[in-house]
């Protein structure tokens, strides 16, 4: 599932392609991917323009010039491509929105969606999300206040979108590794120094992943060679049985609250 770095990468690349260009055509190949009748969805989008693209957690929020919003959540397997049909990857598309000669393709939306909503409806959805660690208003004190009073496994906290927005399985494991904490460490037992390390590692991992284009290596545009560069930077995720790049120990895989979890038992501890 695309996480915060992947969605931010999409936001940056899409913005360069479609902003302030009138929508000239809309194709819906799967009605379950949208939230209203197909004819209404199409008619309300035609001739409008996207004036701003906001990312919040794992969502993209397309602001239209008529005040409406397109809220996108890719969920598991969803991808985005922007360009021309001849350059499109060999994938089925569920929704296609054309801006003149450039088309925004939404692919793999088995569970994901493209919903046309009012600004108030979007606020209700996004209002349930927790803060983002990379937000300029975030600091170590605020992060400590978020963690204090929470209970349970560290990884469960990190992937809880109502507590901290944008982090999923992959980056949670990488964050825990960089913070030298076990994914199973009990949040309520963490000392302030350990929480500070967690804050620093969360900002570090997410920031580096954003700049590297995330881990999903399907290009977003025809000439995109940047997207997915962070995939080779994973230290523990999906590296079961491989050597830990820090200590030379063996990376292990376990199930933690039904989620596959990777860590180094030598480098990572309860504190």
From TrEMBL:
Taxonomic superkingdom: Bacteria
Official protein name in the record: Formamidopyrimidine-DNA glycosylase
InterPro entries the record matches: FPG_cat, FPG_N, H2TH_FPG, Ribosomal_uS13-like_H2TH, Znf_DNA_glyclase/AP_lyase, Znf_FPG/IleRS
Record's keyword terms, sorted: DNA damage, DNA repair, DNA-binding, Glycosidase, Hydrolase, Lyase, Metal-binding, Multifunctional enzyme, Zinc, Zinc-finger
PANTHER family: FORMAMIDOPYRIMIDINE-DNA GLYCOSYLASE (PTHR22993)
Molecular function terms, GO-annotated: lyase activity
Family matches, as SUPFAM superfamilies: Glucocorticoid receptor-like (DNA-binding domain), N-terminal domain of MutM-like DNA repair proteins, S13-like H2TH domain
Domain FPG-type: 235-269
Similarity remark: Belongs to the FPG family.
Stretch forming the signal peptide: none
EC number: 3.2.2.23, 4.2.99.18
Reactions the enzyme catalyzes: Hydrolysis of DNA containing ring-opened 7-methylguanine residues, releasing 2,6-diamino-4-hydroxy-5-(N-methyl)formamidopyrimidine
Gene3D superfamilies per record: 1.10.8.50, MutM-like, N-terminal
């Amino acid at each position: 599932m695309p996480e915060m770095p992947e969605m931010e990468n999409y936001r940056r690349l899409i913005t360069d392609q479609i902003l302030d260009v009138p929508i000239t055509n809309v194709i819906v190949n799967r009605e379950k991917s949208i939230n209203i009748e197909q004819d209404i969805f199409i008619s309300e989008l035609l001739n409008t323009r996207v004036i701003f693209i906001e990312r919040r957690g794992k969502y993209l929020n397309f602001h239209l010039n008529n005040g409406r919003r397109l809220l996108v959540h890719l969920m598991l397997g969803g991808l985005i491509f922007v360009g021309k049909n001849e350059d499109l990857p060999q994938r089925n598309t569920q929704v296609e929105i054309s801006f003149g000669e450039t088309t925004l393709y939404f692919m793999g939306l088995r569970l994901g969606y493209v919903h046309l909503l009012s600004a108030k409806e979007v606020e209700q959805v996004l209002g349930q999300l927790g803060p983002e660690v990379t937000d300029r208003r975030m600091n170590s004190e605020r992060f400590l206040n978020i963690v204090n009073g929470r209970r349970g496994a560290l990884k469960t906290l990190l992937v809880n979108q109502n507590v901290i927005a944008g982090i999923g399985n992959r980056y949670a494991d990488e964050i825990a590794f960089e913070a030298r904490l076990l994914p199973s460490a009990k949040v309520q037992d963490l000392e302030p120094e350990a929480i500070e390390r967690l804050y620093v590692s969360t900002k570090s991992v997410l920031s580096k992943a954003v700049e590297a284009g995330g881990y999903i290596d399907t290009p977003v545009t025809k000439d995109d060679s940047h997207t997915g560069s962070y995939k080779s930077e994973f230290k523990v995720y999906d590296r079961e049985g491989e050597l830990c790049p820090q200590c030379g120990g063996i990376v292990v895989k376990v199930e933690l609250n039904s989620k596959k979890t990777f860590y180094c038992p030598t480098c990572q501890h309860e504190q």
